[in-house]
Amino acid sequence: MKKWMVISVIIVVIGGAIAWFLLGKKDEPQDVAVAAQTTVQKGKLEVKVSGSGSVTAKTDQDVTAENTILKVDSVSVVPGNTVDKGATLVTFKNGDVVTAPYGGEIVSVSVKSGSGASQGTILLRMEDEDGFISPITRGNSSSDMEVGGSSLTVDTVSVKEGDVVKKFSTLVTFTDGSIIQAPVAGTITSLSVASGDSVPTTETVAHITNFSTLQTTISVDELDISKVKEGQTAEITASAFEDETFNGKVMNVASAGTSNNGVSSFDVTIQITEPKGLKIGMSTEASILIESKENALYVPVEAVYTNGDEKYVIVPESSGKSTQSQSQNKVTVKTGISNDTYVEITSGLAEGDTVQIPRVQSSGNSSQEPMMMPGGGDFPNGNFPGGPSGDFGGRNGGGPPSGSGQGGN
């Protein structure tokens, strides 16, 4: 009986050891490097720079009482007149007078009785005794030199909140005869004055927003900002319109950037061509087209290897494209433009040629994913010097090229 018990224990121990060994081998991942294949495609290749931002109004402006227009009552001179310092040149209907700041000759006159002049408007030009010609503006009037603490009394208000106004429309008229005109076209989004109010010249009386001319400002990384230029086209998407794309154009590239954690970024303003249902404040993603090439030959970026100054691809031995080097299926190539996904081949390959892409298949995981090797490393389980180059892609956006090619599969 004791003998049989010992034998049973030995059998159980051996069986357990075998089961542990088999199960352990089954669960242990077995990484095997395999090379997938793709063909050289031909089509349109695009390089883009992307960023995120939000919708803003191109025109969004305060209107202050300092922006008043004065009506000209009379002009006392004509071109060719010679005047002394202090002589009256222009008189406004509210009594303000513009006088000659020095003696000289009137070269030209830009206003006439009944015309309006805002702060800084050129009224005429004078030539001094040294032959220097300078403009005389509304800023030379007697009251304009003392506007620091002055105020105006509102006579009538010609608009209300929500009104859509054209540029130069009259908004407010004051008791001294001066008026405020709309400096831009848009919608009156706020109005803070009423008839009889006393308004300091520095006070904001209205705000105008033009909801038909919208833009988005995105943040672009410092490594890409040198590629972005005014006038480049862009495609814009908005979270609120998942299936719609808007067109735009780069209108401004910031000269100064902002730094965050040691990385600088720059604002790029893109005007939206047709805003349609977009509203101010909506979040956006924009892709700026940096470079585009038709009928380009291209392969996936991971198919191109680098070894020093040399770039090459691996082709199947049966393709007949191999060179007489240590690796019989290595083909030296020259490259052109590239994005995150594809790189242009300018020499060394032809449309339809087959190239290899390194992929890793694991027995513990049936999925396959492209494996990017750092330049200078070895091909997985092989003897090819170099690895897929890190020169292609970077922060440049770009999906599959459009055109006759279908990308690497």
From TrEMBL:
Biased segments, Polar residues type: 359-369
Coarse class of the protein's main subcellular location: other
InterPro entries found in the cross-reference section: Beta-barrel_YknX, RND_pump_MFP, Single_hybrid_motif, UPF0194_transport
Biased composition (Gly residues): 374-409
Keywords: Coiled coil
Stretches the record annotates as Disordered: 353-409
Domain YknX-like beta-barrel: 217-285
Signal sequence range: none
Compartments in which it is found: Cell envelope
Keyword Coiled coil: yes
Pfam families: Beta-barrel_YknX
Domain of life where this protein originates: Bacteria
Similarity comment text for this entry: Belongs to the membrane fusion protein (MFP) (TC 8.A.1) family.
Record protein name field: Efflux RND transporter periplasmic adaptor subunit
Organism: Bacillus norwichensis
